Amino acid sequence: APYPTMNHQRQQKHYGITSPISLACPKEIDHIYTQKLIDAMKPFGVFEDEEELNHRYVIENCKIFYCILFNH
Predict the structure, then answer these.
(1) pLDDT by residue for the chain (72 residues), tens digit each?
(2) Integer CA distances (angstroms), 9 to 6, 12, 58, 64, 68, in order
(3) 8-to-11, 15, 23, 37 alpha-carbon distances in Å
(4) Domain coordinates of the chain in residue numbers?
């Protein structure tokens, strides 16, 4: 009897409930539009500054340490 052939296609991992719209790398125009979007959002204060980012990082690490220490 012949052996069954196995199709070894690499499956892409993705996160979330649905699969991504595209797995293609971004084009130059995508980088331009992303930067334009960032520039448009900055005046509204929607991004963390370095201090806020570090504070959140410390808090998250404390939560993890607490859970490990007290087995929660």
Answers:
(1) 454 445 555 666 777 888 888 889 999 999 999 999 999 999 999 998 999 999 999 999 998 888 888 876
(2) 9, 9, 41, 37, 39
(3) 9, 21, 19, 40
(4) 28-70
Dist. CA 47–CA 56, nearest whole Å: 13
Measured in degrees and rounded to the nearest 5, phi and psi for residue 31 equal: -65, -40
Other CB atoms closer than 10 Å to residue 46's CB: what's the count? 8
| Those residues with Cβ within 8 angstroms of residue 14's Cβ, 6 or more apart along the chain or in another chain | 20
Give the whole-angstrom CA distance, residue 65 versus residue 71: 10
